[in-house]
Amino acid sequence: MVENRNELSSFLCCCLQNNFPFFAYQLPKSGMIQIGVQTDLDLKDYHSLSELDEQNGFVFSPFDIESCHKSWFIRSDINLAATEIDSGSIQLLRSADIKMDEAYPLGRIFESPHELYFDQVTKMINDLKQFKLEKAILSRIQMLDGMGMNCAVDSFLKLSESYDSAFVFLVSIPKVGTWIGASPETLLSSKNNAIETVALAGTQKLAGRIVDQIKWEQKEVYEQALVSSYVEKVLENHNVSDYHRTGPVTAQAGNVVHLKTTYMLPNGMNFHQLSNLVQDLHPTPAVCGLPKSKAMDLIREIERHDREYYAGYLGPIESNGSISLFVNLRSMKVLENQMALFVGGGITADSIPEKEWEETCLKAQTLLNVIRS
Ligand SMILES: C=C(O[C@@H]1C=C(C(=O)O)C=C[C@H]1O)C(=O)O
């Protein structure tokens, strides 16, 4: 826990209450929270990451880039490490007062109860068989009543204290939304000359077992292999061949484990090349499916809610070309007096609806165990 937790908490609450576009995040294994605040409401939306070359800030992109949701860039006009925050830091915010007079549009949040999810999985399995698709990801929303804006900062801080190996974030854009999460999945990261992407899929309950001794069934191995071969195809299309692959190994994410293959890419890719790679990687078959466009159509047809930024990507980018982008998973959209928790899982022709429901409950617990503690 950071020593100045109270000051940090007041600072983040002040950002929220005063409608600043801002972000706070903790990179995996960094143990350090970084904060960036944009001091006006002139937000930039982008189509391709390459438009953001040499900028410092944070990107927030939706699952479906053809939807009404835009990809946003938050500038970090104020850039602070959490440890630097003291009572004087709030003065910095006060000097840039940007109170908005319009209310937030909250959008349509549609919870999928057990019965509906069960029916949707069954339909998805039938469609996968009928149209010969390999995999599609079905998601649902669980509403958390009585936990809203006033719990946002505390929930973020608790997640940052509990999940050292996740990308823990709190991001807020007026009129777009406030999101919190602890993602286990890197989309693409390039820092200190190490460029990395992963293929993550397959889920089991950890249940007190030793991570390295966990065995996987054929269905999960197949699901994860689909993601790996997709990543490899994208790399090949971008003429990246001399990468180093590790795995698949079992990786822990709170109370669940996944299968994960890590790809270390050759040094020296510039921002433009990385942007193009992101464009093609997203959304991976870990959150959309295969073949991509048919899986996307199936998701649009079967899911009744709008994923918005769930299963999109987000993270900091720096003017020196560093990027740390993660998939927006194990995350919640914060509403006035509720939170909408998004969870999903990969469906194949062999899926069993009840097991798929249980998997989403397990994933939801990753967040619930911590924020309700
Ligand atoms: C879709 C989610 O997770 C993704 C799907 C997984 C799966 O199908 O087993 C595992 C990890 C993630 O890539 C989620 O957490 O909502």
Task: Explain what the structure shows.
The protein is α+β, with helices and mostly antiparallel strands and 373 residues long. It has one domain (5-100, 111-371): Anthranilate synthase (4-Layer Sandwich), CATH 3.60.120.10. It has helices at residues 5-17, 89-94, 114-130, 149-162, 218-237, 271-281, 292-302, 353-371; strands spanning 22-26, 33-37, 44-46, 57-61, 71-75, 78-81, 135-145, 167-173, 177-183, 186-191, 194-205, 244-253, 256-265, 289-290, 313-317, 323-327, 331-334, 338-347. The strands form two sheets. Strands 6-2-1-8-9-17-18-7-14 form a nine-stranded antiparallel sheet, with helices on both faces. Strands 3-5-4-15-16-10-11-13-12 form a nine-stranded antiparallel sheet. Strand 10 and strand 11 form a beta hairpin. The longest helix is centred in the middle third of the chain and has 20 residues, at 218-237. It is globular and about 60 Å long. It starts with a helix and ends with a helix. Bound molecules: ligand ISJ.
- Computed structural class: alpha+beta
**Terminal Cα span:** 15 Å
Largest sheet: 9 strands, antiparallel
CATH topology: Anthranilate synthase
CATH architecture: 4-Layer Sandwich
Overall morphology: globular
CATH level-1 class: Alpha Beta
> Number of helix segments?
8
Helix content class: 25-40%
Gyration radius from CA atoms, angstroms: 20 Å
* Distinct ligand kinds: the ligand C=C(O[C@@H]1C=C(C(=O)O)C=C[C@H]1O)C(=O)O
